[in-house]
Structure formats: C-alpha cells, structure tokens
Specification:
The chain has 227 residues and is of the alpha/beta class. It contains 9 helices and 8 strands.
C-alpha cells in the first residue's frame, strides 16, 4: 500500500527520511508529501494550498492509500479522508488529533511578519521533547521552517460524513492510549467520537517519533496498513 507521510508544523518532507526505508522494508511505498510553505520558500501559502498538495498525492497513489499525519497535520490527513473517502483506506494520526469544521488549523503561537516561527523549546518541555538531546534540539530549531500565516490561521472545512467510515489509527507517543481514549470519550475530539473504527497504538517516544523512533513508527504504520 502507498503510505503518504505529512509532517506537522515547521517540518519539511525530509523529516521522514529515516521512516521511508523502514516502511519500504515492510513492503510499502512511502511518499513524504512536500507541503507548500514548509520547505519551498513560500511565505504566502495557505491551508488550501496544503490540502491541494495532499489530495494531489492521494490522486497519484496506486489504489487505496493510507494517509499519515503528524501533530497539526493530523487535520490534513483527516481532510484527505473527507475529500477522498473512497480512496483513503486508513488514516494514521501521529501525536495529534483532527480539528473540526470551522476551527482554525493551527493558530497556536505568535505570528511575526506573516509567518509563525518555531517558538523555541519552552512550550515543549517535558514528555514532548524528553527524548531529544541538546544536539537534536539545536538541529531541529535550526532547520525549522516558519509556517505561513495563511496556513496557521486557515479555517478547516469538512463536508463529507463518509469520512467517519474511514478506519483510524491513533499513534500515541508523548501521551498514552488510555489518555487519548479519555479525551475522545470526554468530547474533546468530536471528529474521532463519531468515527466508526478507531484503534490506538502506544509508542515510547516524544512528540517527534519520526526523528527518534523511526523504525518503531514505521512498524506501527506498516502493521496498520495490513490490518
């Protein structure tokens, strides 16, 4: 199966470099999605541009496809299921949850000069970054791509309730499956509360397992793709 890989905020497609060969070793074709505004130098990209890039990758895939989104990009993966429910065989949500219709995509941090730069490690102290050493933190921060305001403040639009029939895997890195289930049960993730089939997988890592646990992450995605 083709597995599309969508990085979260501040990440370009190279964030999946260690996951791709691990997925291919499991017999899958891994396709990192280059998002407009996150690696191509564009500061004017919008959420719509990123959705279009993801859908183009879905349309170019061979047969049914798994779409894996990381962190904020869990919403991009869910938007793909909404727009292509007949093509998306499974959605994998890595370290995050999808926003609902009418919500802002990722307006989490201050925008400066039309972009939302990486805010430093303060907001991510604790379980999020516990498995990143000082060198890894420096490398991440130096490579972080400021996210265009049109992406961060874009409004999510969901239209097709057939998305709720697409199976979902929630990969739980810095939080546990039990915590994720509790958030869904409490109504904190309305989109998943309506999903017909949701599975949870534990992963002992921080918020960026593609960097710190690529083989383990690939194993979880590969197993879900075959399920």
């Amino acid at each position: 199966m083709d597995i599309l890989l969508i990085g979260g905020l501040w990440l370009d497609a190279s964030t999946w470099d260690d996951v791709v060969p691990a997925l291919e070793a499991h017999g899958h074709r891994a396709v990192p999605v280059a998002l407009p505004g996150q690696g191509d130098g564009s500061r004017s990209a919008t959420l719509g541009d990123q959705v279009a890039a993801v859908l183009a990758a879905v349309d170019a895939a061979r047969g049914e496809v798994m779409v894996a989104g990381h962190s904020a990009a869990c919403t991009l993966a869910w938007l793909a299921a909404d727009a292509r429910p007949e093509r998306v065989a499974k959605v994998a949500l890595i370290g995050g949850f999808p926003s609902g219709d009418g919500q802002t995509y990722a307006d989490f941090f201050e925008v400066e000069d039309g972009v939302m730069p990486f805010p430093g490690w303060g907001p991510f102290e604790g379980p999020d970054s516990a498995d990143l050493d000082e060198a890894a933190r420096r490398d991440f921060a130096s490579a972080a791509v400021p996210v265009p305001e049109g992406v961060a403040k874009g409004v999510v639009r969901l239209k097709d309730e057939r998305r709720f029939g697409v199976p979902v895997l929630v990969v739980c890195p810095e939080f546990s499956p039990d915590e994720a289930r509790a958030w869904v049960a409490a109504g904190d993730v309305p989109e998943l509360a309506k999903a017909e089939r949701v599975e949870y997988a534990d992963l002992d890592s921080g918020h960026w397992p593609m960097l710190t646990r690529p083989a383990e992450l690939a194993g979880l995605l590969a197993a879900a793709a075959k399920a």
